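Z., the sequence and structure:
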Amino acid sequence: MDGLHSTITLNNGVKMPRFGLGVWKTDNHTSRDSVATAIRNGYLGIDTARQYGNEQGTGAGIKLGLEQSGLKRSDLFVTTKLYNGEQGDYDQVSRAFENQLKDLGLDYVDLYLMHWPVDKTYLESYHAMERLYREGKIRAIGVSNFDNDRMKNLLDEAEIVPAVNQMEFNPTNQEHEILEFDRSHKIEMTAWSPLGGGASLTNPVIETLAKKYGRSTAQIILRWEWQRNIITVVKSTHGKRIIQNSQIFNFSLSAEDVQQINKLDQGKRALWYDDFQWHNPKGAFANSIAQWSDTKK
């Protein structure tokens, strides 16, 4: 199946949608509206995180979207992530997870990811996630932002191979070595920032292909990622764009045009370990969700 309901089978047999909506940098109210719009228009994959500060809004959007679409909870695939500041032993991680379920208004999540590999805690935290998985409130577990060294360390210690590694992936950052290593261990890659933070939308190669195919530059990039077999979660807060982003299934890029985009890789990451304060005291992002402000409306 080639469409919004297309799935990929993870290494534990769970089927995950190959295309979904992300809600990074959106407040609770915007998340609610975006998620409900996406579900009404055929999206089955929803991706959020504790660090985004919008799990309550995402949960409200899921509830509203299900009511408006007539779908059941089991029709959706909901991903959230263990917050960096709540990593630790089983008691700490399980307490954090239960609070996330409460905020989301859900009895379970389909995929629970470790948001970043905080060096002092990621192994202990992953063992806690393995235990939560065995307890049945998580259908699959995985990680995010793991380079190959940290992934090797994790695989040496883990009892359950991560189902997913969510990485920044876009035309200028294609993570060849990480993608190859993960796939060799049956770990699927999910793309965050699939449009390169918007920068790839104005790339001359992408613009030329958009004219050639009569598509938006975003649609060209998302179709390229689809043909690269990368699971993709794309953020938008605009209803028309949420719909437009999903309209990539009635055309294909030629093999030559896929290669054109492949050649755009520059290995440029928007964020990496040194950007965060627990690695670098001068880093741009604190170990806090305070930056994700929200106001009542």
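The longest helix spans residues 55-69. The chain has a mean pLDDT of 94.

Let me know what you think.
H.
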